[in-house]
């Protein structure tokens, strides 16, 4: 039963005559309503009401421009790093892999099929490493004096196998033997190495041969972009994998790149030095603007929590009821929380960027993640200011209204999705390259849900087993029909239903909560269309028999 505030106020005054007079209570209520009304105004309304300059709005606009500019500069610099890594990896494959065609075979570089090809490929790596300075087009050199190649071979301890009569005698213990070859020791020893016992490979029990070496280089292309150069350390590993013993040895090339600080460099370029200083100064201004934004938003949240406590205490004191959880959340501005997280990440990322620019650190990945996420949050925060207009606010309110239902729906649909993933992996894995591992299966099914690559998925199934081929048709048809025609349609229907609800509320008015009812008499500056969707978990105001007795008394 809904009871008007007038009667509630009268009942409260009768019950607390000794604690507070009616006039004091009215003054307290009026002051609270004025503060609440002002709190829920947008920046323009606050300026018209009290001439309060919207510092946070101006600062957020400035910050968007500065953070985006900073990200663009860092992205261009990071692009040079990525291209240098990729181009060196391609160059290494052409330098050290005999007969490399330039195109990798699946997840490995190429394959060899004869013993002679295996020996030729191994000694080709050794020979190319020895003549590196004479054949390389890049700024490559050995790591330091005394460094060299490390060659390790793994093989079963004992193995005897006669496939003709099906006999097998094997000790699965693995023996590992390694040697190190320095560049200066390789001159004139090619013939001796071929005759050594280490390179007398017994392929029937050989598991793999691994060749590893480290090289260093300098990225001079950054100078053309008016940046100081970086020094790189490349840890290269070439693996001849014979684990399958199928007559095919897969050759893998892996290069781990580590950006290091150049220990001693002197670059005579005044323009380069000034450009670096300008960028460092700009990064400093970004940090200051984010720090100011962090202080203002933190202050706003603290003031909002104090105002929330005043409202909760007054409501309990006057009406003997607790404020529902939805009305409490009205005071917590999620956009301020998003801005605070973005500011913290931008400050940390900017500090790392300054250290990278000064060549004191090389944490490109960590800096990229921080600056990337912070810029994402900054641009998402722009939606808040568009939300002051009812036309643009539909997106925000629809997302807020549909989020709980969408999350519950995704949990149920995810169980079915996982079931199809495991089933496809175990049944179709041996016959289809897109179902070889769980990660690939999940990606393939997600592509099918979005209507991508359907024909190729159907066509690539191997028809070696009629039973599996028929199962694959049933599997794919049922998955596509279930997820595209049913689950995806229901997913869209959930969002559409929330959108229709929002449109209806915008025409007829949003459900009234305790907070809205409390501010009804002071609604001249309060905008109901700016509600933060408290009606999702809106509390039904109910009065107990004790309150009714108190009011009637």
Question: What coarse outline follows from CA principal-axis ratios?
Answer: flat
H/E element sequence: HHHHEHHEEEHEEEHHHHHHHHHHH
Helix count equals 18
Largest sheet: 7 strands, antiparallel
Low-confidence stretches: 1-19, 523-553
Number of strands: 7
| Overall average pLDDT | 78
Total count of domains:
3
User: Distance N terminus to C terminus?
Assistant: 18 Å
Structural class: alpha+beta
Radius of gyration: 35 Å
Q: What share of the residues does DSSP label as strand, in percent?
A: 5-15%
Helix percent reads 55-70%
What does the model show?
The protein is an alpha+beta fold. It has three domains: 5-39 and 43-65 and 273-387 and 512-552, no CATH class; 97-217 and 234-254, no CATH class; 392-508. It is built from 18 helices and seven strands. Strands 1, 2, 3, 4, 5, 6 and 7 form a seven-stranded antiparallel beta sheet that branches. Strand 3 (149-162) and strand 4 (167-181) form a beta hairpin. Helix 2 (22-39) runs antiparallel to helix 8 and helix 4 runs antiparallel to helix 11. The radius of gyration is 35 Å and the shape is flat. The chain starts with a helix and ends with a helix.
What attributes characterize this protein structure?
alpha+beta; 3 domains; 18 helices; 553 residues; seven-stranded antiparallel beta sheet; 13% strand
Secondary structure layout:
Elements: H1 5-15, H2 22-39, H3 43-50, H4 55-96, E1 110-112, H5 115-130, H6 132-135, E2 140-142, E3 149-162, E4 167-181, H7 190-195, E5 206-219, E6 230-241, E7 249-260, H8 270-319, H9 325-329, H10 334-357, H11 364-380, H12 382-386, H13 390-428, H14 438-449, H15 454-459, H16 466-508, H17 514-518, H18 545-552
Antiparallel strand pairs: 1-7, 2-5, 3-4, 3-5, 5-6, 6-7
